[in-house]
Amino acid sequence: MADVTAAARRVRYEVHILGVATAERFYFEEAIPVGSAMPRTGELAGPMQSKASWRRVTAVEPAPVRWNVGLIVHLEPIDCSYLERDFEVEIGALRDAGWKP
After folding, report:
1. Is the model more confident about 16 or about 34?
2. Cβ-count burial of 78 within 10 angstroms (0-12 exposed, 13-18 middle, 19+ buried)?
3. With contact defined as beta carbons under 8 Å apart, do 15 and 94 qualify?
4. Residue 101 within any structural domain of the chain
C-alpha cells in the first residue's frame, strides 16, 4: 500500500507545447518539501531542479489515486506556433531537464 502522506505531498506538473500543427504534453513529478506551500493558480511554479521551465499555474486539480501523486498542476502552455520559438528545441530542453512525454 502506498504511503498516503507522501503521495499527498507529490505533484505532477503538466505543460503543453503548442506547434503549428501539433501539440505535445510533458509532465514532471516531484515531492514538495514539508513546510513549503503547494502550487496555486496564478503563481509561478515548476520542478525545483528545473527552474528554467517554471511557468504560470493555470489550474490545480486532484490526481487519480493510481498515479500516487496528490495534485496535477497545469502550467501555462509553451506556444511555438510563432517563429520566435522552435518546437523541437523546446521539446529537447524539457527532455534534457527530466520531463517525460
Report:
1. 16
2. buried
3. yes
4. no
